[in-house]
Protein backbone atom coordinates (compact mmCIF):
# COMPACT_ATOMS: atom_id res chain seq x y z
CA UNK A 1 0.00 0.00 0.00
CA UNK A 2 1.31 3.45 -0.93
CA UNK A 3 0.85 5.79 2.01
CA UNK A 4 3.40 8.56 2.42
CA UNK A 5 2.44 10.44 5.60
CA UNK A 6 1.62 8.39 8.67
CA UNK A 7 0.50 10.01 11.92
CA UNK A 8 1.79 8.09 14.94
CA UNK A 9 -0.36 8.46 18.07
CA UNK A 10 -0.39 6.67 21.39
CA UNK A 11 -1.78 6.92 24.92
CA UNK A 12 -4.80 9.11 24.19
CA UNK A 13 -6.40 8.10 27.50
CA UNK A 14 -9.88 9.49 26.98
CA UNK A 15 -8.59 13.04 26.43
CA UNK A 16 -10.67 14.23 23.48
CA UNK A 17 -9.42 17.82 23.61
CA UNK A 18 -5.83 16.72 23.13
CA UNK A 19 -6.81 14.30 20.35
CA UNK A 20 -8.77 16.99 18.52
CA UNK A 21 -5.70 19.26 18.57
CA UNK A 22 -3.54 16.51 17.06
CA UNK A 23 -6.05 15.51 14.41
CA UNK A 24 -6.58 19.11 13.31
CA UNK A 25 -2.87 19.48 12.60
CA UNK A 26 -2.57 16.00 11.10
CA UNK A 27 -5.33 16.84 8.63
CA UNK A 28 -3.76 20.19 7.80
CA UNK A 29 -0.37 18.63 6.97
CA UNK A 30 -1.85 15.86 4.86
CA UNK A 31 -1.58 12.79 7.08
CA UNK A 32 -3.14 9.90 5.16
CA UNK A 33 -3.33 7.21 7.84
CA UNK A 34 -2.96 6.90 11.60
CA UNK A 35 -0.99 4.35 13.59
CA UNK A 36 -2.45 4.22 17.09
CA UNK A 37 -0.31 2.53 19.73
CA UNK A 38 -2.98 1.69 22.29
CA UNK A 39 -4.39 3.11 25.51
CA UNK A 40 -7.26 4.97 23.93
CA UNK A 41 -9.09 4.70 27.26
CA UNK A 42 -8.22 5.08 30.93
CA UNK A 43 -7.38 8.01 33.23
CA UNK A 44 -9.69 10.62 31.64
CA UNK A 45 -13.32 10.84 30.89
CA UNK A 46 -14.28 11.07 27.19
CA UNK A 47 -13.64 7.66 25.59
CA UNK A 48 -16.72 7.88 23.37
CA UNK A 49 -15.63 11.23 21.96
CA UNK A 50 -12.16 9.77 21.31
CA UNK A 51 -13.59 6.91 19.26
CA UNK A 52 -15.90 9.29 17.39
CA UNK A 53 -12.96 11.55 16.47
CA UNK A 54 -10.95 8.60 15.18
CA UNK A 55 -13.83 7.01 13.29
CA UNK A 56 -13.43 8.88 9.95
CA UNK A 57 -9.71 8.19 9.70
CA UNK A 58 -7.95 5.31 7.99
CA UNK A 59 -6.02 3.72 10.84
CA UNK A 60 -4.30 0.73 12.34
CA UNK A 61 -4.47 0.18 16.09
CA UNK A 62 -3.12 -2.12 18.78
CA UNK A 63 -4.36 -2.62 22.30
CA UNK A 64 -2.58 -1.21 25.32
CA UNK A 65 -2.54 -2.20 28.95
CA UNK A 66 -5.58 0.00 29.64
CA UNK A 67 -7.57 -1.92 27.02
CA UNK A 68 -6.51 -5.07 28.87
CA UNK A 69 -7.70 -3.45 32.12
CA UNK A 70 -11.00 -2.67 30.40
CA UNK A 71 -11.41 -6.29 29.34
CA UNK A 72 -10.87 -7.64 32.85
CA UNK A 73 -12.89 -4.87 34.50
CA UNK A 74 -15.99 -5.78 32.48
CA UNK A 75 -16.25 -9.09 34.29
CA UNK A 76 -14.51 -8.44 37.61
CA UNK A 77 -16.11 -5.69 39.76
CA UNK A 78 -13.43 -5.93 42.43
CA UNK A 79 -10.71 -5.40 39.83
CA UNK A 80 -12.62 -2.41 38.47
CA UNK A 81 -12.70 -0.89 41.96
CA UNK A 82 -8.94 -1.39 42.29
CA UNK A 83 -8.35 0.25 38.90
CA UNK A 84 -10.49 3.20 39.93
CA UNK A 85 -8.60 3.71 43.17
CA UNK A 86 -5.27 3.69 41.34
CA UNK A 87 -6.02 5.35 38.01
CA UNK A 88 -9.31 7.20 38.41
CA UNK A 89 -12.63 6.60 36.69
CA UNK A 90 -11.49 6.43 33.08
CA UNK A 91 -12.24 2.71 32.76
CA UNK A 92 -15.62 3.17 34.47
CA UNK A 93 -16.42 5.83 31.87
CA UNK A 94 -15.43 3.49 29.05
CA UNK A 95 -17.79 0.81 30.36
CA UNK A 96 -20.55 3.40 30.79
CA UNK A 97 -20.17 5.31 27.52
CA UNK A 98 -19.13 2.69 24.97
CA UNK A 99 -21.35 0.13 23.32
CA UNK A 100 -20.69 -3.57 23.77
CA UNK A 101 -19.44 -3.65 20.19
CA UNK A 102 -17.03 -0.78 20.76
CA UNK A 103 -15.67 -2.39 23.92
CA UNK A 104 -15.31 -5.74 22.14
CA UNK A 105 -13.38 -4.02 19.34
CA UNK A 106 -10.99 -2.27 21.73
CA UNK A 107 -10.39 -5.36 23.83
CA UNK A 108 -9.86 -7.48 20.71
CA UNK A 109 -7.22 -5.27 19.11
CA UNK A 110 -4.04 -7.17 18.19
CA UNK A 111 -0.60 -6.77 19.75
CA UNK A 112 1.87 -6.39 18.14
CA UNK A 113 0.81 -5.58 14.57
CA UNK A 114 3.18 -5.86 11.56
CA UNK A 115 2.38 -3.50 8.68
CA UNK A 116 3.87 -2.41 5.37
CA UNK A 117 3.43 0.90 3.55
CA UNK A 118 5.35 2.06 0.48
CA UNK A 119 7.83 -0.77 0.99
CA UNK A 120 8.52 0.24 4.61
CA UNK A 121 8.06 -2.55 7.14
CA UNK A 122 6.56 -1.33 10.40
CA UNK A 123 5.85 -3.04 13.72
CA UNK A 124 3.20 -1.30 15.82
CA UNK A 125 3.29 -1.99 19.57
CA UNK A 126 2.20 -0.51 22.88
CA UNK A 127 4.90 -1.64 25.31
CA UNK A 128 7.48 -3.96 23.82
CA UNK A 129 6.65 -6.34 20.96
CA UNK A 130 6.54 -9.28 23.34
CA UNK A 131 4.72 -7.55 26.23
CA UNK A 132 2.00 -4.90 26.20
CA UNK A 133 3.00 -3.77 29.69
CA UNK A 134 6.78 -3.50 29.21
CA UNK A 135 8.19 0.02 29.60
CA UNK A 136 10.85 1.03 27.06
CA UNK A 137 12.15 4.41 28.20
CA UNK A 138 14.52 6.63 26.22
CA UNK A 139 17.39 5.48 28.46
CA UNK A 140 16.34 1.82 28.71
CA UNK A 141 18.70 -1.05 28.04
CA UNK A 142 17.35 -2.41 24.76
CA UNK A 143 18.64 -5.92 25.35
CA UNK A 144 15.20 -6.99 26.60
CA UNK A 145 13.71 -6.05 23.25
CA UNK A 146 15.68 -8.70 21.34
CA UNK A 147 16.74 -5.85 19.09
CA UNK A 148 18.38 -8.13 16.52
CA UNK A 149 15.01 -9.71 15.77
CA UNK A 150 13.51 -6.28 15.08
CA UNK A 151 15.99 -5.13 12.45
CA UNK A 152 13.86 -6.63 9.67
CA UNK A 153 11.58 -3.62 10.25
CA UNK A 154 12.23 -0.08 9.12
CA UNK A 155 10.16 1.34 11.99
CA UNK A 156 9.17 -0.09 15.37
CA UNK A 157 6.57 2.00 17.21
CA UNK A 158 6.14 1.73 20.95
CA UNK A 159 4.16 3.73 23.49
CA UNK A 160 3.24 3.19 27.16
CA UNK A 161 5.94 5.37 28.77
CA UNK A 162 4.42 8.73 27.68
CA UNK A 163 7.97 9.91 26.81
CA UNK A 164 8.88 10.73 23.19
CA UNK A 165 11.84 8.69 21.94
CA UNK A 166 13.87 8.05 18.81
CA UNK A 167 16.59 5.40 18.83
CA UNK A 168 18.28 3.33 16.13
CA UNK A 169 18.47 -0.46 16.20
CA UNK A 170 21.15 -2.02 14.05
CA UNK A 171 21.94 -0.09 10.90
CA UNK A 172 18.57 1.31 9.92
CA UNK A 173 15.67 0.37 12.19
CA UNK A 174 14.05 3.33 13.93
CA UNK A 175 12.56 2.71 17.38
CA UNK A 176 10.04 5.49 17.96
CA UNK A 177 7.75 6.46 20.80
CA UNK A 178 5.58 9.45 19.83
CA UNK A 179 4.89 10.36 23.46
CA UNK A 180 1.38 10.64 24.83
CA UNK A 181 -1.47 12.48 23.18
CA UNK A 182 -3.50 12.64 26.37
CA UNK A 183 -1.12 12.65 29.34
CA UNK A 184 2.46 13.88 28.76
CA UNK A 185 5.04 12.96 31.36
CA UNK A 186 8.09 14.72 29.91
CA UNK A 187 7.22 18.11 31.43
CA UNK A 188 6.19 19.52 28.06
CA UNK A 189 2.46 20.24 28.34
CA UNK A 190 0.47 19.55 25.20
CA UNK A 191 -0.62 16.72 22.93
CA UNK A 192 2.36 14.74 21.62
CA UNK A 193 2.51 12.77 18.39
CA UNK A 194 4.90 11.95 15.54
CA UNK A 195 4.86 12.07 11.75
CA UNK A 196 6.51 9.36 9.62
CA UNK A 197 7.27 9.92 5.94
CA UNK A 198 7.49 6.55 4.22
CA UNK A 199 9.18 8.06 1.16
CA UNK A 200 12.13 9.52 3.06
CA UNK A 201 12.03 7.38 6.22
CA UNK A 202 12.11 10.54 8.34
CA UNK A 203 10.30 10.91 11.67
CA UNK A 204 9.40 14.29 13.16
CA UNK A 205 8.01 14.89 16.64
CA UNK A 206 5.22 17.34 17.41
CA UNK A 207 3.49 18.77 20.48
CA UNK A 208 0.20 20.60 19.96
CA UNK A 209 -1.10 23.21 22.35
CA UNK A 210 -4.67 22.94 23.61
CA UNK A 211 -6.64 24.23 26.58
CA UNK A 212 -6.25 21.52 29.19
CA UNK A 213 -7.55 23.67 32.06
CA UNK A 214 -11.14 22.33 31.81
CA UNK A 215 -9.89 18.75 32.02
CA UNK A 216 -7.70 19.63 34.98
CA UNK A 217 -10.74 21.10 36.73
CA UNK A 218 -12.81 18.01 35.97
CA UNK A 219 -10.05 15.70 37.24
CA UNK A 220 -9.77 17.69 40.47
CA UNK A 221 -13.53 17.63 40.95
CA UNK A 222 -13.84 13.91 40.29
CA UNK A 223 -10.66 12.77 41.99
CA UNK A 224 -9.29 15.11 44.66
CA UNK A 225 -7.60 12.03 46.10
CA UNK A 226 -5.55 11.63 42.87
CA UNK A 227 -3.98 15.07 42.27
CA UNK A 228 -1.56 13.60 39.73
CA UNK A 229 -4.36 13.26 37.16
CA UNK A 230 -4.73 17.04 36.99
CA UNK A 231 -1.21 18.12 37.82
CA UNK A 232 0.55 16.05 35.13
CA UNK A 233 -1.30 17.81 32.33
CA UNK A 234 0.42 21.12 33.04
CA UNK A 235 3.64 19.99 34.67
CA UNK A 236 6.82 21.73 33.47
**Low-confidence segments, ≥5 residues, pLDDT <50?**
none
**Separation, N- and C-terminal Cα atoms:** 40 Å
Classified in CATH, the superfamily is Metallo-dependent phosphatases
Quickly name the level 1 CATH class. Alpha Beta
Q: What's the arrangement of strands in the largest beta sheet?
A: 3-2-1-9-10
Radius of gyration over C-alpha positions, nearest whole angstrom = 17 Å
Q: Can you tell me the number of structural domains? A: 1
The SSE string, one letter per element, is EHEHEHHHHEEHEEEEEHH
| SSE-based structural type | alpha/beta
What is the global morphology?
A: globular
What fraction of the residues are assigned to beta strands by DSSP?
15-25%
Q: How does the major sheet shape up?
A: 5 strands, mixed
Protein name: Metallophosphoesterase
Domain Serine/threonine specific protein phosphatases: 62-67
InterPro entries: Ap4A_hydrolase, Calcineurin-like_PHP_lpxH, Metallo-depent_PP-like, Pesterase_MJ0912, Ser/Thr-sp_prot-phosphatase
Organism: Denitromonas halophila
Amino acid sequence: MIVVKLGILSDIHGNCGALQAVLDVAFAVGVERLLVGGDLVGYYFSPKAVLDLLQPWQKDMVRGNHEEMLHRSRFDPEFLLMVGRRYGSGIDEAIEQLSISEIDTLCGLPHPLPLEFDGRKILLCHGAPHDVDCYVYPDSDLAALDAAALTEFDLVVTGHTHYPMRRVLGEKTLLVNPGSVGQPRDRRPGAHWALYDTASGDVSFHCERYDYAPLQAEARRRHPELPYLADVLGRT
